[in-house]
UniProtKB/TrEMBL annotation, chains A, B:
Record's protein name: TetR family transcriptional regulator
Domain annotation HTH tetR-type: ranges: 10-70
UniProt xrefs under InterPro entries: DNA-bd_HTH_TetR-type_CS (IPR023772), Homeodomain-like_sf (IPR009057), HTH-type_TetR-like_transc_reg (IPR050109), HTH_TetR (IPR001647)
GO molecular function: DNA-binding transcription factor activity; transcription cis-regulatory region binding
Amino acid sequence: MMGAMGRWQGGASERLRDAALGLFLTQGYDGTTVAEIAAAADLTERTFFRHFADKREVLFVDGDEFERVFLGGLPDQADDPMTLIVGALDGAAGLFPEERRPWSRARQSVIAANHALQERELLKMSSLAVALTRALTARGVDAASAALAAETGVTVFRTSFALWVAEGERRTFKEIQNAVLARLQALLA
Amino acid sequence: MMGAMGRWQGGASERLRDAALGLFLTQGYDGTTVAEIAAAADLTERTFFRHFADKREVLFVDGDEFERVFLGGLPDQADDPMTLIVGALDGAAGLFPEERRPWSRARQSVIAANHALQERELLKMSSLAVALTRALTARGVDAASAALAAETGVTVFRTSFALWVAEGERRTFKEIQNAVLARLQALLA
DNA sequence: AGTGTCATGTCAGTTACTGACATCACCTGC
DNA sequence: GCAGGTGATGTCAGTAACTGACATGACACT
């Protein structure tokens, strides 16, 4: 039986994540200590650091699944690199359904308010670009084109995501992403 | 007269920067404490933090001048956004003459070995993209195209820089950048 | 000489993060 | 049932990044 004592309540990671986002929203990231988050989740600071590599990471654990889905959307093969990238972008769009938009907005508002969190987000994007580059070269794309196509794909994704969570935006993620891609092709035509 | 006592030797920032890069190269970033850097520069830890906002920043102070030059290369006006971006890229190429390549390689080897430093570098690039976006909109480019063109420009720069500091690379920065840009245009044609 | 200014030194404190070891619920074999 | 193993958690001590408050000392100006 699960007691009410804090230890062994189960779902420690989720409790920590929820407590953290809640506190960040009300007190700000810098104004919240890890000890506070842990206490709010009925755990200790040490346990927090067993679940997350550092304080920032509590907002980025979903990143692993994100990268997996993104890569999973890559077609097995295609004639040109950008066709591969567009396939991955289409797959990623599935990760951002309408019902997730409010949560994404909340999370993004916290990140936008803090440099350290922006850095972490950029690192995740960069790591995604690296993984994409590897996947492209594995499909026969030369290294330079692969890196460029991957970076460009990430740029399209980031730009689209920023628009999607922007105040007042109504279009779906997929619609936005298609529009962004079309505009980029027009720019470089 | 400048005594030899450590205080008031002048050039504190530069001494700290040199000491830091030297120690990072031999002991690694994590293996070097701020106290060590300060001692090597004949200063105290507290003084280090008066010159640099944090430990990472000691490797990134040039970033401000970099951003300034990059923006300074922007033509006053042009018909399409990418022409503006290409102008800025040409200006930036002047910041990386051959004699700077060894130093850039050393610095980059330190950054490549450490996640925290990569994060900071990505933040600088992101901040450059934001500044570029602003400059483009100020020249009449619509917001979405400006953001996309700016991000793309930064991608071209980053890709080019990575090639330039790569082992065995002989081409000049400008040559590499032109090649990267041409390849990107081919990709999206 | 007197005075102000500015970079630096000194010191105490907070917080992120880590290693070592103890504890306690649960499960497993018997 | 009960002895022992396992894994998540707690406890504690320590390091290092970073900050605020205040002292100090060289220099410039008068």
